[in-house]
Design a protein that fits this description.
Blueprint lengths: L4 H21 L5 H20 L12 H19 L7 H19 L13 H21 L17 H20 L2
Helix pairs in contact: 1-2, 1-6, 2-4, 2-6, 3-4, 5-6
């Protein structure tokens, strides 16, 4: 993505760590939890790869269309799964945002790592608003609830850690959209 190298590497680390934890969450005994974790792992690792600073690595031209295809497939899967519940719509928006950023990077004169590439301002603004609201709501959901004590679930089933991962990916998406 665009921008200075230090914040770019921090974003790469955040997204890669989130993707790695989501892989751990795929070991959950809850099938719904496993599927969501798989979608989120793909998003985390894809965001980490896309956020590598251009000063460190300039990917070949075919990488951005490949991202668009992979996340287009993820968006279609999220759309298909959303038939059974609206909680999958966030995955659809996230995958569509990744497709949008990959298309913008494809259209950029230097394969997306130079300053000056830009997307459609209205679409970028809409995605920024969506992810800003998502981050705020996700942050509120992390606040402790009085009297919510009980047995400690396994690592893959910890809802507060899953929410923290979603929050960090939302923040990462905001950062990436700001650089478009």
């Amino acid at each position: 993505m665009h921008g200075p190298a230090s914040p770019g590497w921090l974003l790469v680390a955040l997204c890669a760590a989130t993707g790695a934890y989501c892989l751990l969450r795929m070991r959950s005994s809850n099938e719904t939890q496993r599927r969501a974790a798989g979608d989120e792992a793909l998003m985390g690792f894809g965001m980490a790869a896309m956020a590598v600073p251009g000063s460190a690595f300039t990917p070949p031209a075919w990488v951005w269309p490949a991202y668009a295809v992979v996340f287009g497939g993820a968006a279609l899967r999220a759309l298909w799964v959303a038939r059974s519940g609206t909680h999958h719509l966030h995955h659809l928006v996230g995958a569509a945002a990744m497709v949008y950023m990959a298309v913008v990077m494809t259209a950029s004169p230097t394969a997306g790592h130079a300053h000056g590439a830009s997307g459609v301002p209205l679409l970028t603004g809409g995605l920024l608003l969506y992810f800003a609201a998502y981050v705020l709501v996700s942050g509120v959901r992390l606040l402790p609830v009085a009297g919510a004590a009980g047995s400690v679930p396994a690592w893959g089933d910890r809802p507060e850690l899953a929410r923290a991962c979603r929050l960090s990916m939302g923040i990462g998406m905001l950062a990436m959209l700001l650089t478009i």
